Amino acid sequence: MTYIGIIITFVFVNNFILTQFLGLCPFIGVSKNVDSAVGMGFAVTFVMSIASLTTWAVYHWLLVPLNLGFLQTITFILVIAALVQLVEMIIQKISPPLYKALGIYLPLITTNCAVLGIALIAVRSGYNALESFIAGFAAGLGFLLAILLMSTLREKLDAEWVPRPLRGTPIAFITGGLMALAFMAFDKALLRNLIG
Amino acid sequence: MIHEFTKGLFKENPIFVIALGLCPALAVSTQVVNALGMGAGVIFVLLGSNIFVSLLKDFIPEKVRIPAYIVIIASFVTIVDLVMQAYAPSLSRSLGVFVQLIVVNCIILGRAEAFANKNTLGSSVLDALGMGIGFTLALLLIAFIREVFGAGTITLFAFGSFDGVIEIPGLSESPARVIGLATGAMLVMGYLQALFNWMGTRRAGKPGSTAQDGAGGAAA
């Protein structure tokens, strides 16, 4: 049951973009059309799932036994950067179509704060390996959901008249704000009612 | 030379004009004191990384420069994180994971890549100070609006008999709480960016020029 709780928490209640403000740069930057938004969403979900598992292993098997917990930030960012490179190479080798779809988004993911964010949050929350993996996967799904909704809205907005100073990023932020208002319906009380 | 310092304050303000480093800007702007703490952390890291990158620019091989910059930045972030935990534990708690996330703040890597690895030590220091102070001012503006309207208070550092919280009569009894929440953050950010766009185009004299293109607007 706790696994379902983690999934609901990271997809809806603590949605990374709409309540935690992690991963805003791609959310605003890559949401101009649905295709690239979906590509980015899947790439982020993929990297976040693997990254949270890998950083869990590095933290608990390397940093804690060596008493080097203070090197957490440096180690995690290097692990993530290396991991993104590795994922890029593996995908390129085994699945060229997938690489064509996700390839251009992968390098951008290293500096996506959502990826480092989930690694740090999973360690802070004291999750075990499987919980970390599920949290990373669920947070990625939450990101995918938010960026998909946002890109659909922005494609519609393109056809509308928007006052000149509000065009581009400002109207995207205001749209995001209204989406966040809707996501306020998903709160801790909902989680309690669903899983007790 | 002085231009390197002043450009970050308004014309190339990292938050409102270049739109970099947005995550911390929205996440920690719930209280004025958080904005001050985050701003100080970012100024320190930006200054440290710009100094080291501009000093080491001739020694770092072109191919591994980004990982090298990230290690430099991460070292300074670790310093800030540990110092904050030791001397300002309550601030460290309220900023939470966002102190460590300074490492992926695009402003810092962006300045290292776009400025410090091409310029001298002096102009890199001025650039770091200007960008850092511009970031802090933007953060303070967002935090001020959100805290005044969302909670009816202004929270600063506590000293002596002053507990650090200024209550604004009239607003603190019935604040518009939504401004302090996630929704308010994005709305305030959107309207402030629109304001900066509008002022930018007004200064440029012809409507719809540079600032609009920079924002990558939805072409109607």
Uncertain segments of chain B: 207-220
Count of alpha/pi helices of chain A: 10
Strand content of chain A: under 5%
Main beta-sheet annotation of chain B: 2 strands, antiparallel
Runs of chain A in which pLDDT lies below 50 for 5 or more consecutive residues are: none
Tell me the fraction of residues in β-strands of chain B, as a range.
under 5%
Secondary structure: helix percent of chain A? over 70%
Radius of gyration of chain A: 18 Å
How many domain units of chain B? 1
What can you see in these coordinates?
The complex is a heterodimer of chains A (196) and B (220). Chain A is mainly α. In chain A, 74% of the residues lie in helices and 0% in strands. In chain A, helix 1 (2-13) runs parallel beside helix 8 and helix 3 runs parallel beside helix 7 (113-124). Chain A is globular and about 60 Å long. Chain A starts with a helix and ends with a helix. In chain A, 49% of the residues are buried. With 220 residues, chain B is mainly alpha-helical. Chain B has one domain (3-203). Chain B is built from 9 helices and 2 strands, in the order H-H-H-H-H-H-H-E-E-H-H. Chain B has a two-stranded antiparallel ribbon. Chain B is globular, with a radius of gyration of 18 Å.
Strand and helix layout:
The complex is a heterodimer of chains A (196) and B (220).
Chain A: H1 2-13, H2 24-29, H3 34-63, H4 72-94, H5 96-102, H6 106-109, H7 113-124, H8 129-157, H9 169-183, H10 188-195
Helix pairs in contact in A: 1-8, 1-10, 3-4, 3-7, 3-8, 4-5, 4-7, 7-8, 8-9
Chain B: H1 2-6, H2 22-27, H3 32-56, H4 65-87, H5 89-95, H6 106-116, H7 121-151, E1 153-155, E2 165-167, H8 182-204, H9 210-214
Antiparallel strand pairs in B: 1-2
Helix pairs in contact in B: 3-4, 3-6, 3-7, 4-5, 4-6, 6-7, 7-8
What characteristics describe this protein?
heterodimer; A: 196 residues; mainly alpha; 0% strand; B: 220 residues; two-stranded antiparallel sheet; 9 helices; 3% strand; disordered C terminus
